[in-house]
Amino acid sequence: MPDKKNIKKSIALLSEICSLMMSSGANTKRVIGSVNRFASALNFESHALISHKSITMTLTDKLTEENYTRVSQIPKYKINFSVVAVISRLSWTAEAKHWDYDKIKSRIETVKNEKRYPFWAELLTVSLAGAGFAKLFGGDYLNMFVAFIATLVGMLVSKTAARLNVNSYARTYLSAVFASLVSSLGILWNIGHEPQVALATSVLFLVPGVPLINSFIDLFNNHILNGIVRFVSGFITVLAIGLGIITVMVMFNINNFM
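Above: the chain's sequence. Below: its structure in token form.
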């Protein structure tokens, strides 16, 4: 029969799982469903109130009805869908096979310690994606090259600002400015057939697709507060991107954007 110590360590583990999934980009419904399955495997019933920055969780022993409440903070958001997918699958297996605390803890530690892609690989692939968008929107190979370099510079600025703990919205603005500065040279020097395309696509890596998609998922599933917060966060990010582009257009007096 679980005692107070077991409840405390179990709620600490479940709160950690909740935080890990939220910070990795999961929507609220998926987080709650996964945590409830892990709790069921441990013979507990969980109730979680999740906001954008914190988690309040109450865990109740199904046999003794003993309960414990814990409040924890959600760390900085670092989107990683592989973490979300793996933890979600583990939750189903844990519930079906009635995993104990040690087994769940071990598997979660394995997920936490999995290495992310190296920075150079992320930088290269995102820059290639920027070049690909330029081609998709009608640019030629010179426009693709400009978009590639501009995206690469924007990514470097974003990562550098992140290491310096710059505010996320200010970081987005600075990244958009530097990416636009590079791509605007294509317009000023008339590089390629459609130089405006490079300017338009060089900032697409900054578009907050995950927060905006999750905001609508949360709203449709009646997680209204999280849905609104995520939508507002995405909106401010889009606004920062737009301001970054406009700043450069005003600097160089660029009127024929598209």
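Residues 4-113 form one domain.
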